Amino acid sequence: MKSKMADDSIVFAAESESSTAQLHDVWRILIVDDEEQVHVVTRLVLQGFTFEGKGIEMISAFSAAEARKALAETEHIALVLLDVVMERDDAGLQLVHYIRETLGNKMIRIILRTGQPGAAPEANVIVDYDINDYREKTELTAQKLLTTVISALRSYRDLSIIEMNKNGLEKIIEASPEIFRMQSMQNFAAGILMQLSSMLKLSENSLYLKISSFAATCRKDGDLNILAATGEFSVVTDSALSLEVKNKIDYVLGIHKSMFFDGYFILYWQSKGDYSYLIYMEGTPPISDLDRRLLDIFCLNISAAFENLKLHLDMYDTQREVFFRLAEVAETRSQETGNHVRRVAEYVSLLGKHYGLSEKEVDMIHLAAPMHDIGKLGIPDGILNKPGKLTEAEFQVIKRHALIGHDMLHGSELEMLNVAAIIAAQHHERYDGNGYPAGLQGEAIHIYARITAIADVFDALGSDRVYKKSWPLPEIIAYFEQQRGKQFDPGLTDLFLSHMEQMLAIREEFLDIVLVPGEEKKLR
After folding, report:
1. Which domains, ranges and CATH numbers included, belong to the chain?
2. For 4-13, what is each residue's pLDDT tens digit?
3. Catalytic site residue 469?
């Protein structure tokens, strides 16, 4: 056992436990020493101490083992005042090694206070251990202890700011690819709100209430469009925002910059076109200068991303229209109804979503499926539009359209065209293996083609063609039930039949329009 060394600061009366500061926003100091008097004196010296507006919370441990327990149970300890010789001669030094190496905590400041400097010579300890200060107890007067604590807390504060900046930038780097993957403005905006909420939790002392937020675009004419919302705003339309919120938004739109207020903030940036973008969040804690700087960086990222996404969506819309027009050329040659390809696109999207395809895959087959009959461009008109029954030779020519379509589409650098090539080649294959052109069976037929086959036949049976009249719905349903597991994938057939109301809604929305002199007539 070590001998008890006098401490020239032990001249104060003991402090009662009830007077210890119990603050939420505090600097936490862990006192580790096996002499109770050292704890008493330290608490008395630091009683009422504040640094940068924050008080302190002192935690006592009378051995290295108790200190390990305290470190495990208490977060964000800023400073350890540590004795060297306790239950063992090197207990304090082993605790330093545990903190730095086992816990990997490089932030916490460690000050060794020893009454037996011979047991742990300063020169050796400073070189061999990652400590921040070394003091003999006899030299630590009340004033020197205060000075040492202030210096350590200031160092901890600076390291915390650096760490928060690093974490904040990492959050931005992590968030950016995640939201950049969003394929629609609505999903993109929802991703931004989610990432912002995550980023703002960098503030160590933030007490979060229920946060409500929305992201919106605003045209120059003042027309506001909410893209995504959370909390109380999730059920509010742009036209139903309260007058108070509208006034706040109008103010920001008038000054053309982000603003931070007590309990809420509004982020603003201007696009290159006619739009401004807004993110409104309320129920937030005070936003620190650090968080504001991080939000500025985040806004720079997402403003560029918004522009890129808008260009991408414009290109997507243009690409989709070109593909639809091209597919319609093939349908027009065979005198099939005008909206067939658009209905098929919607049917396959709906089936794909219910089947569980990813959003990217659903978008892909929405574009690719309308090209399923593009190979009809290579079939002679006399056979393609023959009103009567085809001969066996003529049917063999018709069957060639699957491979013609595949040859026209495959090999492109565009993934969508390669998907379209698969659908064109396989949409006449049958689940039982009796289809064409390759006689594929079951799941050897690509899922995209199996989905398209159902959509194509459903629309064909429900539409007038040159060689037949449309079928009544009960007959169509009976046909699919009969062909379940034969022509069509049984699981997909069940999925299709269970969502018939949605299928019929699509058919109603995209009725064929035939122009008749003096009137416009819609055909099923």
Report:
1. 17-161 (3.40.50.2300), 181-309 (3.30.450), 334-523 (1.10.3210.10)
2. 333 333 232 2
3. no
